[in-house]
């Protein structure tokens, strides 16, 4: 048992500590599904599992709450699996190595999985509790939220019956969410012809030290995108011949690292180093507030096995430099909310003459979501790439008159003596899909404070977990 199991509230932290020991990458949730089924059986609770792998565990109402409406407590099982380069870790086998650091819980060089492991832990703590009043509980745990919302898309119609839903996947204590952005993924595939390596001097270029973060919630924080920075660097090199470009991993994470292998004629090496120093100085100044630890490096290496043909190289670099990235528009309805954004998430050479570029578009306005996806498609198509969009997912339109919201705000005010902030989030919650499947649902979302989610900097504020738990208990008692 790690030190985090000794934190308070013990009921939540003990369940979270157990969850950190269970591997649960997206699309590979078998072990956490087994953990949930075992939990239900050990606690004498009825459960269901659907074909997608979603699990719902049922707990009857306490005697004084039998006439109250049932509530869904919803969280997702999977976690984003990101680690720092040089860290040895197998997300399919190894338990997360947690540590307490000045009021926060972090992991050692990897994502922590508090998104949404702490929401799961709170739901399990409610299911296990014998000292709290609550209506009937339907604790829903969905699969593959992070990479495709597969569980929410394919949730069986008979899994839940309650008309109230509390989503436990938010990241700012003191804020209650009643809306979220919809999203769509756009993938561009370039084909190129490998050609023999010319007589050149070759280098490895690297961009590292970036904060990264959630491509929705952190997109407005002025952080650098490693793929964009590397593309800009390479685009300005005279006489460049590109062999490889790789950066980023996940569609919903701002990429933190990228590298490329490229060469220049021997007579241009001195000019290359002069240009590199100028570029590094300029980019460091450009991101001195948004990403102060940005680091660019160049090192000479042996010649690679092949390089790209000239036409494909120019098409790729022009597309990577030109494709939109970051905040596209702020909301007119809620001025502090990002309305529309896009993220150049990953660029991967497959080794088979293909380069696959993954991007993610988000918007709380459906027409704007379609437009920014079309903008991204247009740039890549003009560069000769084949482009495809995934199915996407709907947003969750805010309902400020929600009765459940009223009870949640009232509970928060009574507990802490202040008004919570009610807002929408520029990230994809599963609530939009639930609402499309169950139109009568009344929903809110809240959680403790997390920072650096979707990156190895992910951290969970200890004090906020206590308030998150108090609010959940109070709300269930008030419904």
Give a structural overview:
This protein is of the alpha+beta class. The protein has helices spanning 10-20, 30-42, 114-128, 150-153, 226-235, 269-286, 310-322, 366-382, 403-416, 431-437, 462-478; strands at 46-49, 55-59, 71-76, 98-101, 104-107, 137-142, 164-167, 175-180, 182-191, 201-208, 241-247, 258-264, 295-301, 326-330, 338-349, 354-363, 386-389, 421-425, 442-445, 450-451, 459-461. The strands form 5 sheets. It has a 6-stranded mixed sheet with strand order 1-2-6-3-7-19. It has a 5-stranded antiparallel sheet with strand order 14-15-16-9-17, with helices on one face. The longest helix is centred in the middle third of the chain and has 18 residues, at 269-286.
CATH homologous superfamily of the largest domain, by name?
Zn peptidases
Q: Any idea of the CATH topology of the largest domain?
A: Aminopeptidase
Number of DSSP helical runs? 11
The gyration radius over C-alpha positions equals: 24 Å
| Average pLDDT level | 96
Q: Portion of residues in helices?
A: 25-40%
Spatially, the strands of the biggest sheet line up as 1-2-6-3-7-19
Number of domains: 2
How much strand content do the residues show?
25-35%
Number of E strands? 21
Alpha carbon gap, first and last residue: 35 Å
What coarse outline follows from CA principal-axis ratios?
Answer: elongated
